[in-house]
C-alpha cells in the first residue's frame, strides 16, 4: 500500500492544513538562531540570552491554552489565522528592532503566538475526519512536519550566511502566506456551543481540567514527549561523545523523516486499536533506544533511528487520536490544547534529564534509562485501556 493509498479519503481541509503547516514549518527556521541573534545583533550576555529564551519557552504554554480556548469559541479557521499573523508580526518586530528591550518584547509576543496554531488545526482534522481515518490524517500531518523540518534546516544553513535578521523576515513571509491560504481555502467556522439544555453544573462537570482521563493521558503523553525531546537534545551530544561527525545528526534526522513518510501505511493495519498501536510504538521506541545505548558507529545509529522513528509514528498519531476521541465536539480544541501541554513540559524537563544522565552515566545510561521507561509504558497499556475507557 502506498502513502497515497494509505491517505485516500482524507478531506480537502486536511490536505490544506497539512500543506499550510508544512510550508510554515519550512519557514520556521528562526528558533535555533534566536539566541544567536540576541547575542550577536543585540549584544545580550549569555545570562540574558538564557533568561529570554526561558521566558519564550514559558510563554508557549499559555499560547497553546489560548489556542484551544479560541478554537472552541472563536472558530478553528479564525484562530489559525490569528496565530499565524501573530507570529509574523513578532518575527518582523524582531527583524526591525534596534534595541535589546524591543527584541525581548517581540520574543515574548512570539512565544505567546507560537502555539496558537496547533490546537485548532488538530481539532479541525478531527472535526472533518472519521475516527478510523484519524491515525492516517495525524500521521500524514506529522510526516509532513518532519520532512519540512529537514528542508528548513537546509534553508537555514543557506540564509544564515547573510544578515541573520533576514531569517525572521523569511519566516514572517511564510506565516502570512499560510494565513492567506487558510483564510481563503479552509471551510468557514461553525459555532460549537454546548447544547442549550445542558446546565452550568453539567458543563462544569465535563470541563477538560475535571476529566481524569485527559489528565492521565496528559501524564502519559508527557513521558513520551520527554523521551522524544531527549532524542532531539541528547542525540547530537551522544555523537559528539562518541567522536562521530557533527553532520551525523542531520543524516539521522533526515532518515527519521523519510521513515515517517515511507511507513504511513502501517497506520492502516487492521485489528490495531489505539492501545495496541501505542504498545507496539513503545516496543519499537525501546528497541531503537536500546540499540542507541550500545551504538558506536553512524550506521548503527541510523538503524536505531529507523526503529525509534517507527515507534514515534505510532505514538505521535495515536496519542492525538486518543485525545481527540475523549473530547466532546464543543470542547475538542481545549482538550487538545491541554494534552499539548505535554510538549511544553517535556521541553522544560528534557534538557535537565539529558544533561544529568549524560554526566552521571554517559550515553549508555541515558538511552538505557529511556528504553526502560518506554518498555514500562508498553507493558502498562492494558492498565491505561481500563482507566481511559472509564467515564
Automatic annotation (TrEMBL):
The keyword Transport applies. The chain crosses the membrane at residues 12-40, 46-66, 78-94, 100-117, 138-160, 166-186, 214-235, 247-267, 279-295, 301-321, 333-354, 366-384. InterPro entries: MFS (IPR011701), MFS_dom (IPR020846), MFS_trans_sf (IPR036259), MFS_Transporters (IPR050171), Sugar_transporter_CS (IPR005829). Residues 13-389 form the Major facilitator superfamily (MFS) profile domain. PROSITE patterns: MFS, SUGAR_TRANSPORT_1. It is a multi-pass membrane protein. It is found in: Cell membrane. Keywords: Cell membrane, Membrane, Transmembrane, Transmembrane helix, Transport. This is MFS transporter.
Amino acid at each position: 500500500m502506498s502513502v497515497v493509498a494509505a491517505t485516500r479519503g482524507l478531506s480537502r481541509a486536511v490536505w490544506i492544513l497539512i500543506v499550510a503547516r508544512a510550508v510554515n514549518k519550512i519557514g520556521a527556521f528562526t528558533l535555533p538562531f534566536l539566541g544567536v541573534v540576541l547575542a550577536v545583533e543585540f549584544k545580550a550576555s549569555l545570562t540574558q540570552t538564557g533568561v529570554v529564551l526561558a521566558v519564550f519557552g514559558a510563554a508557549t504554554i499559555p499560547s497553546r491554552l489560548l489556542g484551544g480556548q479560541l478554537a472552541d469559541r472563536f472558530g478553528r479557521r479564525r484562530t489559525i489565522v490569528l496565530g499565524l499573523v501573530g507570529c509574523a508580526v513578532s518575527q518582523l518586530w524582531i527583524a526591525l528592532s534596534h534595541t535589546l528591550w524591543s527584541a525581548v518584547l517581540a520574543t515574548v509576543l512570539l512565544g505567546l503566538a507560537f502555539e496558537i496554531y496547533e490546537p485548532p488545526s488538530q481539532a479541525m482534522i478531527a472535526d472533518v475526519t472519521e475516527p478510523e481515518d484519524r491515525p492516517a490524517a495525524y500521521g500524514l500531518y506529522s510526516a509532513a512536519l518532519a520532512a519540512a523540518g529537514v528542508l528548513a534546516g537546509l534553508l537555514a544553513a543557506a540564509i544564515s550566511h547573510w544578515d541573520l535578521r533576514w531569517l525572521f523576515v523569511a519566516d514572517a513571509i511564510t506565516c502570512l502566506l499560510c494565513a492567506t491560504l487558510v483564510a481563503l481555502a479552509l471551510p468557514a467556522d461553525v459555532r460549537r456551543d454546548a447544547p442549550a439544555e445542558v446546565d452550568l453544573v453539567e458543563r462544569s462537570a465535563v470541563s477538560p481540567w475535571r476529566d481524569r482521563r485527559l489528565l492521565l493521558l496528559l501524564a502519559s503523553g508527557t513521558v513520551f514527549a520527554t523521551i522524544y525531546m531527549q532524542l532531539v537534545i541528547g542525540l547530537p551530544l551522544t555523537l559528539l561523545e562518541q567522536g562521530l561527525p557533527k553532520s551525523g545528526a542531520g543524516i539521522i534526522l533526515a532518515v527519521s523523516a523519510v521513515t515517517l513518510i515511507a511507513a504511513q501505511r502501517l497506520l492502516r493495519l487492521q485489528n490495531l486499536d489505539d492501545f495496541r498501536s501505542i504498545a507496539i510504538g513503545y516496543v519499537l521506541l525501546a528497541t531503537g533506544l536500546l540499540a542507541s545505548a550500545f551504538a558506536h558507529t553512524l550506521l548503527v545509529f541510523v538503524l536505531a533511528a529507523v526503529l525509534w522513528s517507527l515507534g514515534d509514528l505510532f505514538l505521535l498519531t495515536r496519542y492525538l487520536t486518543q485525545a481527540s476521541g475523549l473530547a466532546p465536539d464543543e470542547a475538542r480544541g481545549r482538550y487538545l490544547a491541554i494534552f499539548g501541554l505535554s510538549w511544553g513540559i517535556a521541553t522544560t524537563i528534557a534538557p535537565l534529564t539529558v544533561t544529568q544522565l549524560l554526566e552521571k552515566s554517559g550515553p549508555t545510561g541515558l538511552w538505557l534509562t529511556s528504553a526502560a521507561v518506554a518498555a514500562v509504558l508498553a507493558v502498562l497499556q492494558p492498565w491505561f485501556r481500563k482507566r481511559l475507557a472509564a467515564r
